[in-house]
Specification:
about 350 residues; 6-stranded parallel beta sheet; 13 helices
């Protein structure tokens, strides 16, 4: 089969690799029908995730069809269309029993495209399938569903829930990429008083306004002053970091009010300065986290009911074999205007896209 293989920092290749097979009775083999690229994949390419070694098949988000199931799998069977979660859960360890699947100590957690071969391939092996794939109703479009593999549960759980967004809050989202935009969309579920989006790219600020941001600010034009002006100098109740760079994090800590929350969602590859000399007296709460995906079933129900604007985030469509081109477009988002790129999958009815690739 073909797959996107990490060659080392700065390089991937769409190349031949061995087909995956059942290695454990709880595994399934899934034919990948739709897949996307995550900002975390770009961090891997930059060398920010040293656990990912050359030769690894990348990717942790996909929709596909089960073609083989191990003898212990109970919830899906060959022929079922499924969403592959970015988090794999053994279901038995202490953290899985607490619903903290991202911290699984039984062989799961974030492993796809990280410590085992991932989803950016024609086929993928998914361990612990009963808790790690979700059956999909036929009415849900694959290009929409694939956004619930990672970005929507991540934004909701690590941003909105950890940040404790409440009605009437002033919420600031720093970084209006896919994660930040999903955070804006899911923060609206809690009726905040206002949402402010901060980013360097005007195209992303436009997308933020389209998804419900009440105000926007360019990241290089003193967004702290806008937040101060809109809150009578107090600061925001909740600030979410959705970039993963030191400057963005430090901007967040300057915009939060005393007693407020900073929810870090971004993946950081370099050290960040925590200015405790300024923050110790402000009684703020700072949270970090890897998504647990406990919210995925609920978000799927919302998607099926038309309550999540998933399709609004998909800006580019490719055939599966155009993986290298898709990485180039996604990696140059400031130039291309890319939000989420989707490869493969059936054609969406509301946008013009290239024809789907033939089934493998």
């Amino acid at each position: 089969m073909k797959a996107a293989v990490f060659q080392g920092p700065g390089s991937i290749a769409w190349q031949d690799v061995p087909d995956p097979g059942i290695e454990d009775p709880g595994d399934v083999i899934v034919r990948v029908d739709a897949v996307t690229i995550c900002g975390t994949d770009l961090h891997i390419l930059k060398g920010d995730v040293p656990e990912v070694t050359p030769g690894r098949v990348l990717g942790h988000e996909a929709v596909g069809t089960v073609v083989e199931a191990g003898r212990d799998v109970r919830t899906v069977r060959p022929g079922d269309r499924v969403l592959i979660s970015c988090i794999t859960a053994c279901g038995r360890c202490r953290f899985c029993r607490e619903g903290r699947y991202g911290q699984c100590r039984g062989g799961g957690g974030w492993i796809l495209g990280h410590t085992v071969d991932g989803t950016q391939a024609e086929y993928v092996r998914v361990p612990f399938a009963d808790l790690s794939v979700h059956p999909l109703p036929s009415a849900i479009d694959s290009a929409d569903a694939v956004l619930l593999a990672d970005i929507f549960p991540t934004s909701y759980e690590v941003g909105v829930i950890n940040g404790r967004v409440r009605p009437a809050d002033t919420v600031v989202v720093v970084g209006a990429g896919p994660i930040g935009l999903a955070a804006i969309a899911t923060a609206r579920l809690y009726s905040p008083g206002r949402i402010i989006a901060v980013d360097l790219a005007e195209t992303r600020l436009t997308a933020a306004r389209d998804l419900g941001a009440d105000a926007t600010a360019a990241a290089d034009e003193e967004p702290e002053q806008l937040v101060a002006d809109l809150t009578d100098g107090l600061g925001a109740d909740v600030v979410m970091e959705a970039v993963g760079v030191p400057r963005a994090f430090e901007t967040c800590t300057r915009m939060v009010r005393p007693g407020g929350h900073v929810a870090n969602i971004g993946v950081h590859g370099t050290p960040v300065t925590l200015h405790l000399e300024d923050l110790w007296i402000k009684d703020i709460t700072l949270t970090t986290g890897l998504v647990d995906t406990w919210s995925t079933p609920m978000l799927l129900r919302m998607l099926a009911a038309g309550r999540l604007p998933a399709s609004d985030l998909v800006t580019h469509r490719f055939e599966l074999g155009q993986m290298e081109e898709a990485y180039d477009v996604f990696g140059r988002a400031a130039d291309t205007g890319a939000l989420k790129v989707v490869l493969g999958g059936p054609q969406h009815t509301t946008v013009e896209v290239p024809a789907s690739p033939a089934a493998a």
